[in-house]
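Example record for the data management plan.
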Amino acid sequence: MNKKRGEIVLLVGVVLAVLILFSFYFDGQILIYIQSVNIGLLMDILLGITFVSSELIIFFVLPVFFLWQEHKRKWILPLWVALGFSVALGFLLKFGVQRLRPFQQGLTELMPILANPSFTTWNFSFPSLQTMMVFAAIPILFKEFRKISFLWIIFAVLVAFSRVYFGLHFLSDVLVGGALGFTIGWIVVDMENRKRFWSRIYEKMFYGER
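Corresponding structural encoding:
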């Protein structure tokens, strides 16, 4: 079973790597094509998603899911760890790569409502931070809320798509961001599966030594 799982992970990794390399090469063309598609009412939905997927909202709204049931509260800390590590890694990569956003390269025009002064000072394009964060939550939500986690997956995909559609990011930005974020979340869950890492921290914090 572990061998089969490893082969699936390897296959997905290879396919994703090919997609990322492909997107790097055709980023400009893909961006122009996506923006040429008339999606009507969906634009308003994507605008809403763009605003509600801010870092602070993700940090403080997601834990509500885990507060519903006491035995799931131990996942609030690892969730914050995954989100926090995503933010830290995202900013390191942004400053390291310093890739200008699509609208800064003249490939598209930015809607005035989405204008943010940080875009022209320090907040670079690669990778997409919002995409990293929403994908980092997927493995944790899937483990504890499997029946409704698909709703968050849909939300995560729409977040990634909206970043490209509005010219805030290239496709490669969101693909790399999604892959890194999901990997971070998967590592956090794996630490619990293997060592009960987060359970032991939770028990020590709230119930003392055992």
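Summary line stored alongside the record: The chain has one domain: 2-207.
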